[in-house]
């Protein structure tokens, strides 16, 4: 075998499994932030009318309502700014696509049932990773353009 070519097992471990792990962890992180901030919005927003309705019986109710309102505003801002739900979905989709391609390859299923299976597999994996990187670059450029 040509020494300049990457070994299949090294590629599987160093590239494919590494990327699957990365996208999996990023997806879980984005999901956790999305759920935390959305829960904060819901709970804080629900307490505002409740506390306002009993403001005569609750000492410093105006401060408590203000703090809950601030929590809703900050949570909404971070959800909007960081796009946690979109990131969660995109990272999960990329992770599951990579897993799907890996299992097709390991099972030597179509389209990886021919002589050049490894080359096609590498091309498909790199295409998925490249698309994710390209999508991220497009998102960053769009954000920069909106802020200018």
Order of SSEs: HHHH
Q: How many domains in all? A: 1
Number of helices: 4
Low-confidence stretches: none
Class of secondary structure makeup: mainly alpha
Taking all Cα atoms into account, the compactness measure Rg is 23 Å
Architecture overview:
- With 148 residues, the chain is mostly helical.
- It has one domain.
- 82% of the residues lie in helices and 0% in strands.
- It has four helices and no strands.
- It is elongated.
- The protein starts with 7 loop residues before the first helix and ends with a helix.
- The model has no long low-confidence stretch (mean pLDDT 91).
Concise summary:
The protein has 148 residues and is an all-alpha fold.
Ordered list of secondary-structure elements with their pairings:
Blueprint (H helix, E strand, L loop, with lengths): L7 H46 L7 H22 L1 H23 L10 H31 L1
Helix pairs in contact: 1-2, 1-3, 1-4, 3-4
Features:
148 residues, mainly alpha, 4 helices, 82% helix, elongated
């Amino acid at each position: 075998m040509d020494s300049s070519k990457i070994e299949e097992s090294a590629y599987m471990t160093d590239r494919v499994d590494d990327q699957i792990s990365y996208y999996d962890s990023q997806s879980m992180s984005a999901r956790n932030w999305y759920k935390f901030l959305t829960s904060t919005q819901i709970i804080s927003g629900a307490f505002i009318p409740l506390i306002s309705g009993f403001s005569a019986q609750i000492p410093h109710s105006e401060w408590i309502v203000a703090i809950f309102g601030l929590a809703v505003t900050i949570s909404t801002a971070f959800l909007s700014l960081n796009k946690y739900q979109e990131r969660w979905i995109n990272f999960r989709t990329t992770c599951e696509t990579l897993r799907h391609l890996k299992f097709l390859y390991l099972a030597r299923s179509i389209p990886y049932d021919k002589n050049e299976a490894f080359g096609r597999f590498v091309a498909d994996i790199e295409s998925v990773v490249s698309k994710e990187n390209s999508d991220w670059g497009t998102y960053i450029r769009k954000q920069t353009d909106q802020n200018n």
